[in-house]
Amino acid sequence: MMIFPKLAVLFLFPIIMVDCSKHQSGRRRRWTGAVDDHKYGTLLSKKMVDTTKTRKVKTDHLLRVDDHDFTMRPAFAGPAVPVGVDVQVESLDSISEVDMDFTMTLYLRHYWKDERLSFPSTTNKSMTFDGRLVKKIWVPDVFFVHSKRSFIHDTTTDNIMLRVFPDGHVLYSLRVTVTAACNMDFSRFPLDSQTCTLELESYAYTDEDLMLYWKSGNDSLSTDDKISLSQFLIQQFHTTSRLAFYSSTGWYNRLYINFTLRRHIFFFLLQTYFPATLMVMLSWVSFWIDRRAVPARVSLGITTVLTMSTIITGVNASMPRVSYIKAVDIYLWVSFVFVFLSVLEYAAVNYLTTVKDGKDRKLREKAKEQSLPCSCGMSHTKTMMLDGTYSEADANSLAGYTRAPTVPEDPQDKQERMVVHLSLDSEYSTAKKRGIWSFSIIQNTHTIDTYSRMIFPGSYIIFNLIYWCVYC
Questions:
Q1: The dihedral sign for the CA sequence 442, 444, 445, 450
Q2: Which of 65, 198, 321, 440 has its CA 20 to 30 A from that of 458?
Q3: In angstroms, rounded to a whole number, what is the distance separating the alpha carbons of residues 212 and 253?
Q4: 164-174 as b/e, with b when 16 or more CB fall inside 10 Å?
């Protein structure tokens, strides 16, 4: 009886094993994505497997990054590595006269060959990577000479692109904004043109290890046609290159991006030149105002002087403190001198008028105190004294004068009165003759204003002609 169950187990065991194997094979087919043809009604073509996503062709394995020491340059201990460079200027953001610098955003691209990065390819197509691979391979250590600030854009990720070709050629591109110094000459400001330079150079490798060059000559530099600045007109972009020497490290290849900017003059005409010219012309109005209107002429002169001072201060506030004279300084300070001279002109007119009025007042007072009633009815004494005596015939010989009724008087009194009149008449006549030739302007001070009406405008027009001919 015990033998029968054992025989049944031995008979059913192979059948159970066969069923289990079939069940496992069915699960295996579903797991690998096998699809029954009759379920969808059509036969789907098999999708080709992307071999670059398998572990065997991982980027590090494909480029053999782990098989080489990329801390050393290509062809180490051999000839210098040629590294071509080209630049595309995206924007010229700002030009600062106060800080004497400029800010530029550009695409900087490097080209070189590193046989350690070559890989087999049947299609001869390149592979493109982002900035994460850059940290694992060798790239040129180019930096900007005389730069104050610079950074690589990182929105939304680092703006770095690396493209590797099957034969080992590499393209390395990055988007950079740099602020660099620009040595400006303001001797002709604001009628000036400025030439600024952006310099590129390897930091560690001398010309014996790395040779920087413009990949396509002057065509290696391209710009956007929409680049514009508010105060400048971009005239020219061009490239140059030469060697730079450092006494402690040696010779290095240096690349230059040169661009010339010409300043727009219209803004400064409106903000500086026209106001200064109007202030000078306004100061001339005082020449047509009565010289006795002291408050009007003084207030006008002081107002124009203070306005010119404000214009000069405003211009210098937006400029660096250079030790030489600028073109705008010449114009503004000459205009200031014209305005100041108009104030001095009225000071001279007022002084000479006061002096003349004082002399006339003294003469009138002296004549009033010393003169006595004239017996001959004359407005000015015209009689003469000869040898201390006079005769009635001499008095009657003054034709054209009327005689007043004579009153008997002592002859000695008549002689003294005649002496007084003759001495006053002699002094007045001498001063009058001298004033006609030597002091005609003093006696008639408005003549200074008359001359100023012609001299001041004429001189300022001549100055403007010379100024604009020299600087334009």
A1: negative
A2: 440
A3: 6
A4: bbbebbbbbbb
Query: Alpha-carbon distance 330 to 50, whole Å?
Result: 75
E strand or H helix at 126: none
**What residues does 238 pair with on adjacent strands?**
258
Amino acid at 2: M
Which value, in Å, is the radius of gyration of the alpha carbons in the chain? 51
CA distance linking residue 58 with residue 65, whole number of Å: 11
Question: Which of these ranges, 9-23, 84-98, 376-390, 443-457, has the smallest mean pLDDT?
Answer: 376-390
**Cα–Cα distance list, 28 to 22, 25, 31, 40 (Å):** 10, 5, 5, 20
Among candidates 366, 353, 247, 228, which has minimal Cα distance to 291? 353
pLDDT digits (tens, 9 = 90+) for 110-150: 999 999 888 888 787 888 998 888 888 999 999 999 999 99
Collapsed DSSP state (helix, strand, coil) of residue 435: helix
The partner residues of 34 in beta bridges, in order of sequence, read: none
Q: Which long-range contacts (CB under 8 A, 24 or more apart) does 246-251 make?
A: 249/206, 250/206, 250/207, 250/208, 251/206, 251/207
Q: Please name every residue paired with 256 in a beta bridge, in sequence order, or none if there are none.
A: 199, 240
Q: Report the C-alpha gap between 136 and 58 in whole angstroms.
A: 14
* Residue 15, both tokens: 């059948």
Whole-angstrom distance, CA of residue 146 vs CA of residue 126: 36
Distance CA 343, CA 332 (A): 17
Tokens of 463: 């100055």
Contact 315/92 with Cβ under 8 angstroms?
Answer: no
Lowest-pLDDT choice from 13-22, 138-147, 365-374, 462-471: 13-22
Cβ within 8 Å of residue 368, ≥6 positions away: none
Are 328 and 297 a contacting pair, CB within 8 Å? no
Closest C-alpha among 174, 96, 102, 105 to residue 139 = 174
pLDDT of 387 above 50: no
Q: What stretch of H or E contains 366? A: helix 327-370
DSSP 271: I
pLDDT in tens, 220-259: 999 988 888 888 999 889 999 999 999 999 999 999 999 9
pLDDT value at 321 more than 80: yes
**Residues 356-380, mean pLDDT to the nearest whole number:** 70
Q: How far apart are CA 209 and CA 129, in angstroms?
A: 26
pLDDT for the residue 335? 97
Phi, then psi, of 241 in degrees rounded to 5: -155, 150
